[in-house]
Design brief:
Chain A is of the alpha+beta class and about 210 residues long. Chain A has six helices and eight strands. In chain A, strands 1, 2, 3, 4, 5, 6, 7 and 8 form an eight-stranded mixed beta sheet that branches. With about 80 residues, chain B is an all-alpha fold. The radius of gyration of chain B is 12 Å and the shape is globular. Classes of the chains: A alpha+beta (about 210), B mainly alpha (about 80). At the A-B interface, loops of A face helix 2 of B.
């Protein structure tokens, strides 16, 4: 089975890029909670729930927005998500802990607690894009391209997926990166990228 | 009562991260869930916490929330009636 990368997005503290092209630069070095909102507005997205998400979910959400602009024949049943992540939901975990640490001022926030799982990130992506295929997030120190490639390839071979979103999305209080790839078994003439999906898929040089 | 409603709207906007909503956008009689502000079940839980944290008012039975959280008017009336 021939698999192709059809789109790529990367969001770092420096910028947001899609398919090797700069979308928005973070020249003012805003923290993610500001840069993410700036990018949301720049992309003219209308999805108020975005503001309720924690930073990890916002990062994955925005990365997916950048990734899916040119998709043809999008059918959520035929889409899977396979991600890697290092810090899980640690930032939200800490925020939740802070809200319950003082027994005399004990007001745990349901809106924070609901994000104390990295799988919620997958859920937010699935809700937005009506994805009902397999979705999973593996813990890894950094993007393990060989592992992700092997898993995604096997998924395509065993299931009849048309697309898989894969990559590494990690948010911690001092660093973040959202690097996503849209892999497809389908021909798509509008795809901005078309390069083979292999064990070095993350070593794209534009 | 009017001051309470204004404070309540500000607190709700902040607590629920209603980024694109201003105090002036919320009508006192407007439904908060469904067609109104479009709040969801997590928001309802957050409102229960907000009432206790900011006003010392408890909603012991979450089922009561359906009636209390109909609008700013109903929340304000509940606070007035139950605050200590």
């Amino acid at each position: 089975m021939k698999l192709q990368i059809q789109a790529h997005s990367i969001i770092t503290p420096a910028s947001a890029q899609a398919n090797g092209e700069l979308v928005l630069s973070n020249d003012r070095k805003h923290p993610f909670n500001l840069f993410g909102k700036e990018l949301y507005r720049y992309l003219s997205i209308q999805y108020p729930k975005f503001f309720k998400m924690d930073e990890l979910c916002q990062l994955a959400f925005l990365g997916t927005e950048l990734l899916t602009t040119h998709i043809e024949n999008w059918n959520g049943d035929k889409v899977a998500i396979v991600l890697g992540n290092r810090s899980a939901s640690l930032s939200s975990d800490k925020r939740h802990y802070q809200s319950i640490a003082d027994r005399d001022n004990y007001f745990p926030s349901p809106a924070v607690f609901v994000y104390t799982l990295p799988n919620i990130m997958l859920g937010e992506m699935c809700i937005r894009y009506k994805i009902t295929g397999e979705n999973t997030c593996f813990m890894m120190d950094r993007m393990d391209a060989v592992f992700l490639y092997t898993y995604v390839r096997q998924l395509f071979e065993e299931e009849q997926y048309h697309y898989c979103i894969t990559g590494f999305v990690n948010y911690s209080d001092d660093a973040y990166v959202g690097e996503l790839y849209l892999v497809s078994s389908q021909k798509n003439t509008n795809a901005p990228l078309s390069r083979g999906f292999d064990k070095n898929f993350n070593q794209i040089i534009f | 009562m009017e001051e309470l409603k204004e404070n309540l709207k500000t607190a709700i906007i902040e607590a629920l991260n209603l980024e694109d909503v201003n105090v002036a956008d919320i009508n006192d009689n407007e439904p908060l869930f469904g067609d109104g502000l479009g709040l969801d079940s997590i928001d309802a839980l957050e409102l229960i916490v907000l009432l206790e944290k900011n006003y010392g008012v408890k909603i012991e039975n979450p089922e009561d929330g359906r009636e209390v959280f109909q609008s700013i008017n109903t929340i304000a009336a509940y606070i007035e009636k139950n605050k200590k």
